[in-house]
Amino acid sequence: MFGPWYAATLLAIESQTVIALRLAALAAGGPAARRETERMINEKIGAAVEAADTLLTGGTPDAVIARYREHVQANVTRLSADKPVLPA
Fold it and tell me: What's the predicted TM-score (pTM) here?
């Protein structure tokens, strides 16, 4: 309906929420921050492999963006539940 740029723009906007939540988690430090860093790196590698696989098997860039948005939304849900309480 809105063309391919619409989904890509939504992905960029939604990703900012994950970035903010992850920065808060990393700023808290400790073992949880280390686990989140490792998880983030593994997720990024996995998502890149998944995207390449989708494109190499005839998938469209729109399909890749849609799948990335699913990953981002799952991270927002997970990170929001684990949101650290920062001092006021």
Answer: 0.81
